[in-house]
Specification:
- By secondary structure, the chain is α/β, with parallel strands linked by helices.
- Helix content is about 40%, strand content about 10%.
- The protein contains 16 helices and 14 strands.
- Helix 3 (about 75-90) runs parallel beside helix 11 (about 295-310), helix 6 packs parallel to helix 7 (about 195-205) and helix 14 packs across helix 16.
- It is globular and about 65 Å long.
- The model has no long low-confidence stretch (mean pLDDT about 95).
- The structure holds ligand F0G.
- Ligand F0G binds near residues 102, 215 and 266.
C-alpha cells in the first residue's frame, strides 16, 4: 500500500445525532445517577465508551440479512445459517444460540459446575466470575504475572500462566470441571493470548482430562493480534487463525454483541454430546427452543453476517489501529495506560495517574466521573468497585485500578477520538485536584451496576 493513513473501511449511510450538555447539566445528571455512570441516561452522554458490547453499527449487509429473518419457532432457516456460520469458524459439533454471552455461561456452568469446584481462567470477566460464584464454585484468575503490570510491553500479555494452570489441575483432581481462556483478556486490559499459549493450555487440560473452553467474545481481534505478532502467522488469514484457535478447545461461550458485530445475541458451542443435551434442556427451560435460544430469527441472520464481516482484514486493521491511535496520543502526553493498547479499548491506569487517592477511595471510579463531568465521556471502572467485593462479603482491593474506554465497533470516527484525547489530556492536567469516592448503597453482587456513591471530600475536585 502506497499511503500510510488507515481509513475507516466504510462510509456512513445512516446517522444518529449525539447531544452536547453543559457542565452544570452533567453535574446534576451525576448527582441524580448516584455518581454511577451506569445509572446515567444515555442521552446525557456525548461519547459513550461504557462498552463495546452490543453498541456497534451494523452494516448494510446485516440490515439486509435481517429482512430475511425466518421467525419460525422451530427449525427456522435463519438458525441453519447461524449454525453454519458458527461451525465454519469454530468447528464445534453443537451450536446453541443464547440471548447473550452470560446466558451461555449460566447454562454451561449450570450443567458443568458444582459447589466447591474451581474454574481457572486467564481472567474472568465480571459476569463469568459472577456466574461461576453463583454456582458456589471458585473463579480462579491466573494470568501471567506480567499481565498485571500495566507498564510492561509484551506481545501477548493476556496469556494464562501455564505453570499455575498445571499446578491447579494436579492439586485438585476431580474438582476442576473445565478451564477457560478469555480472548482477548478483557479485564486484563484487552490483551491478546498467543496461539502457543492456547495450544499449551489445551494440551495441559487434556493431559488431566479436563475440558478446555474459550470465552470467545473478541476472538477476531485476538486472531488479528496473532497474525501481527506471532511467528508463523503473518501469511494466514484471520479466519484460518480463528479456526486454529478453536481447534484446540472443546467448546466456547460467546457474546455476539462483541465480535459477532450484532446488537444482541450469543452462543454456547461444544463437542460433548451429553453435556450439549443437558445444556439444550436447560436452554428450553429458560431461554427458548434450541433453534432460536431467546433470539429473533433476524438476530440470528445479523450474527451470521457479522461473524463473516468481523474477520475481514481491512476491518481488523482499522479496528486495532483506531484504538492504538488514542493510545499513542496518551502515551506521548505521559498519561499512564495499560501497555500496549489492546483490541477493543484503552485502559487508563488510575493507580499510576492518581497516586494521591487510596484504593479504598476508588481512584478509577473517581477518574471515570471526572471524564464525564469535564467532557461528557462515559467510560467504565475496572477496579475495586467492580472486583473488590468478595463472595463472603470481605473487601479486597483489585489488582489494578483501570478506567476502560471501550470503542463501539464502526461507530465513532477519528475526530471523535481527537476530542476524546483532548478531554483526557485536560483532565490529566488537573489530576491532583481529583478526589476519591465512597459507596453509600450497594447490592450484594455485581455492585458496580447499581451501587450509589458520593465524593468523599464534598466534591469530585478539590477547590
Ligand atoms: N465474557 C467477556 C470476556 C465479556 O467481556 C463479556 C461482556 C461477557 C463474557 C458477557 O457477555 O454481555 O453478552 O452477556 N462484556 C461486556 C463489556 C459487558 O462491557 O465488556 P454478555
Amino acid at each position: 500500500m502506497q499511503f500510510k493513513t488507515i481509513i475507516e473501511p466504510f462510509r456512513i449511510k445512516a446517522v444518529e445525532p449525539i447531544r452536547h450538555t453543559t457542565r452544570a447539566e452533567r453535574e446534576i445528571a451525576l448527582q441524580e445517577a448516584g455518581y454511577n455512570l451506569f445509572l446515567l441516561r444515555a442521552e446525557d452522554v456525548l461519547i459513550d465508551l461504557l462498552t463495546d458490547s452490543g453498541t456497534g453499527a451494523m452494516s448494510s449487509g446485516q440490515w439486509a440479512g435481517m429482512m430475511l429473518g425466518d421467525e419460525s419457532y422451530a427449525g427456522a432457516k435463519s438458525f441453519y445459517k447461524f449454525e453454519t456460520a458458527v461451525r465454519h469458524i469454530t468447528g464445534f459439533k453443537h451450536v446453541i444460540p443464547t440471548h447473550q454471552g452470560r446466558a451461555a455461561e449460566r447454562i454451561l456452568f449450570g450443567s458443568a459446575l458444582k459447589p466447591g469446584d474451581i474454574v481457572p481462567n486467564n481472567t474472568h470477566f465480571d459476569t463469568t466470575r459472577a456466574n461461576t460464584e453463583f454456582r458456589g464454585a471458585i473463579a480462579l484468575d491466573i494470568p501471567i504475572p506480567e499481565g498485571r503490570d500495566p507498564q510492561i510491553i509484551l506481545p501477548f500479555k493476556g496469556n494464562i500462566d501455564l505453570g499455575k494452570l498445571e499446578q491447579t489441575l494436579r492439586e485438585n483432581p476431580g474438582n476442576v470441571p473445565l478451564a477457560m481462556i478469555t480472548v482477548t483478556n478483557n479485564s486484563g486490559g484487552g490483551q491478546p493470548v498467543s496461539m502457543a499459549n492456547i495450544r499449551a493450555a489445551s494440551e495441559i487440560c487434556h493431559r488431566y482430562g479436563v475440558p478446555f473452553f474459550l470465552d470467545a467474545c473478541r476472538f477476531a481481534e485476538n486472531a488479528y493480534f496473532i497474525k501481527l505478532r506471532e511467528e508463523g502467522y503473518a501469511d494466514k488469514t484471520p479466519l484460518e487463525i480463528a479456526q486454529e484457535m478453536f481447534s484446540y478447545a472443546d467448546g466456547a461461550t460467546m457474546s455476539a454483541k462483541k465480535d459477532g458485530m450484532a446488537n444482541i445475541g450469543g452462543f454456547l458451542a461444544l463437542n460433548d454430546d451429553a453435556l450439549a443435551q443437558e445444556c439444550k434442556n436447560m436452554l428450553i427451560l429458560t431461554e427458548g427452543f434450541p433453534t432460536y435460544g431467546g433470539l429473533a430469527g433476524y438476530d440470528l441472520e445479523a450474527i451470521a453476517v457479522g461473524l463473516e464481516e468481523v474477520l475481514h482484514e481491512d476491518y481488523l486493521e482499522y479496528r486495532l489501529r483506531s484504538v492504538a491511535y488514542l493510545g499513542d496520543i496518551l502515551t506521548k502526553a505521559g498519561v499512564p495506560i495499560m501497555q500496549p493498547p489492546g483490541g477493543h479499548a484503552i485502559y487508563i491506569d488510575a493507580k499510576a495517574m492518581l497516586p494521591h487517592i487510596p484504593q479504598s477511595e476508588y481512584p478509577a471510579w473517581a477518574l471515570s466521573l471526572a471524564l464525564y463531568l469535564e467532557g461528557g465521556i462515559r467510560s467504565v471502572e475496572i477496579g475495586s468497585v467492580m472486583f473488590g467485593q468478595q463472595p463472603d462479603g470481605r473487601e479486597i482491593p483489585a489488582a489494578m485500578e483501570l478506567v476502560r474506554l471501550a470503542f463501539p465497533r464502526r461507530v465513532y470516527t477519528q475526530s471523535h477520538v481527537d476530542y476524546l484525547a483532548e478531554v483526557i489530556l485536560h483532565v490529566n492536567s488537573m489530576k491532583e485536584q481529583i478526589r476519591g469516592v465512597r459507596i453509600t448503597a450497594s447490592p450484594p453482587v455485581l455492585r458496580h451496576f447499581s451501587a450509589r456513591l458520593a465524593p468523599t471530600h464534598g466534591g469530585l475536585f478539590a477547590t
